[in-house]
């Protein structure tokens, strides 16, 4: 199947009652691929599990006017057993986000606090009778936290980005033991939602006044200017209407902005130029409350003859039941095992004999080559030794002649002074010996 980037958007009324729905669009052309009706959701009320590993995915959306979660075939809800339930914050929880590896849950509340919870500790059977303890608490905001973005990487080696009504966007590092605050960015208006590209290079923050601010997490090269490069004055995009959703495309080339009027605006990520607008849902009294880019699901094409298997979706429990938890068995789909082909017609003895033959032949030829090279090297070294000996003899003869000249010229031939020291010189050809003797 040809890879195709799609856009899943959720539409719902901002205030009052009304019937919303979900829609799947082709991001390149804006064509509507599918529509999922009878879903009236608000901001942060929709999530998606993509189709992968040979199994179909789901869209889950909670309703604003009913205590119902709609599940659309489009991860895996193996059972409805409630694994844990606890009071995480003092006030209403505004947003819940999983890390990219699903190893932790990040909760942000109206009490201005952000808590990070380890999924392994939440579902541990040994800790079911204890109050869950968060992995860490991030408490630098002063007003309700409205959105959270989890960066790329495995937990806890990842970063978090939070925005709040206190007009700030903060970047946190979970890999360090102290969980430091890496940076704070302030704006003239309260930030309602944020998004970050997968490479963690840039953050886009949307305010309630209809502006999208760009935050670069890198230092731009001041000496390099290219087409599409933005200056400091172009770090803000004026939408002109309330912003209700924000996301970056799957290829990290486009910025998508959902508005309260139902239109979806597609901007170039670098130049901030408006490329096109998807106006299928415009002026219908619905706002775009959810945006998510992904590849087209493999189970979306109805022309496939073999449908992708789906796991059953069982209603969620409303209370914790220890008995149901103990009797529940986690079902796993084991991939097929393929046996490696074996060699036919050969046994281990024959293979070892052939290996020994080639190894012995190679070592013999290597020894022959090394022997011929060694003989040539020995001959060359002997010639160098003979040359060095001849040069040494010449140098010794020059030294002897210089010594005789110095002795006959500077040292008097008369007897030495009584009581003084004298030097005896041996002028034999074998060498010269000097001795000092005192009277």
UniProtKB/TrEMBL annotation:
What UniProt keywords apply to this chain's record, in alphabetical order?
A: Nucleus, Repeat, rRNA processing, WD repeat
* One GO-annotated biological process of the protein: DNA-templated DNA replication
Q: Name one GO cellular component term.
A: nuclear pre-replicative complex
Q: Where are the WD repeats?
A: 86-121, 160-176
Q: Does rRNA processing count among this protein's keywords?
A: yes
**Renumbered residue ranges of the record's region Disordered:** 412-439
Compartments where located: Nucleus
Looking at the UniProt entry, the stretches that span the membrane are: none
State the family named in the UniProt similarity comment for this chain: Belongs to the WD repeat IPI3/WDR18 family.
Tell me the subunit arrangement: Component of the RIX1 complex, composed of IPI1, RIX1/IPI2 and IPI3 in a 1:2:2 stoichiometry. The complex interacts (via RIX1) with MDN1 (via its hexameric AAA ATPase ring) and the pre-60S ribosome particles.
Its biological purpose: Component of the RIX1 complex required for processing of ITS2 sequences from 35S pre-rRNA.
Name assigned to this protein:
Pre-rRNA-processing protein IPI3
The protein's organism comes out as Rhizoctonia solani
